Amino acid sequence: MTKTFSMICAVITTFIWGTAFIAQDTGMDKIGPLTFNFSRFFVGFISILPIALIFEKNKIKSEISKNKKMFYKYWILMGVSLFFGTFLQQASLLYTNIANAAFFTVFYVPIVPILLFIIYKQKVHWSIYPSIGLCVGGVYLLSNFSNSEIMFGDSLVILCSLFWALHIIFAGKFMKTFNIPIFYAALQALFVGTLSFLFAIIFENISIENILNESYSIIYAGVLSGGLAFTLQMFAQKNIDEAPAAIIYSLEGVFATIAGWIILKQILDIDNIIGCFLILIAVLLSQIAPEIKKKLG
Asked: pLDDT tens digits for 168-210?
């Protein structure tokens, strides 16, 4: 698997996450965030498991046996971080708007290198830091946050970005040892879906009729975001370090804005366009600068 292939997977992942923002927002007209999440992740599990069994069946046992303790450790760590990341993001949309959610979610970009150093004593390439600045500035312009009111939901998104950062880090570490990305994505979807279901029973009123009323949003967010995107994320982080990967994922805001422009007929102003370019420059800088250093020795 080449780095180019991983880059393509990362961009497709980001595109799906960005466009899924609309489905996530519109899919809670009749159901709560936990119900929406358990529905979409079970759909993701069902859609990904058959593919995993077709392509990875013969190596699942041998891959897990490499280090069973580490495998289950990362399954729990990634499952818990993804559960809280997706739940807090989903719940925040009840209290804040997509613009604010897009801005504060991208806080995982500066958090990733900080956590890498704290947890693993891992330093990152110097290009990550100006890329972070460009990225945050770009999303600020992209989201029209300067015209938005601070809302309760924003604090939920900031907390959510911490769990997204942890998930990105654990995904990168997992893929350094194991090579069953499709099967693992299915297991991860099952973990998050089950946890969401258990909490939904306690805190929400689950109605099959209401779930079916949101079926289009659930299927889109389930098959593409909960299933395909998180599978491609595993392929992406096989050859891309965690901090540069986080910067690539920040393109989520660009794709969300473009989707809003096309689907919801939202108007792009000059700030939005400048924001898109700043994020694009951040992504290119984070990827090209380390490669130039390698070539120069």
From this structure: 999 999 999 999 999 999 999 999 999 999 999 999 999 999 9
What is the chain's Cα-based Rg? 18
192 sits in the region (left: phi over 0; alpha: psi -120 to 50; else beta) called alpha
pLDDT for 150 beyond 60? no
Please report how many Cα atoms fall inside a 13 Å half-sphere around the Cα of residue 118, on the Cβ side: 8
State the virtual CA torsion across 43, 108, 182, 87 in degrees, nearest 10.
-20
Helix, strand, coil percentages in the chain from 3-state DSSP, rounded to 5: 80, 0, 20
Does residue 54 register a pLDDT over 90?
A: yes
Q: What span, in angstroms and rounded, lies between the C-alpha atoms of 130 and 271?
A: 20
| Integer Cα distance of 287 and 83 in angstroms | 29
Q: Which of 237, 250, 17 is nearest to 142 (CA)?
A: 250
Q: Please report, for residues 27, 104, 197, 200, the alpha-carbon distance to residue 204 in angstroms, rounded to integers and kept in the order given.
A: 15, 26, 10, 5
Q: Distance between CA 88 and CA 154 in Å, rounded?
A: 10
Domain extent for 220: 3-296
The number of folded domains in the chain is 1
Q: How is residue 145 annotated by DSSP?
A: G
- Is 183 buried (19+), middle (13-18) or exposed (0-12) by CB count in 10 A? buried
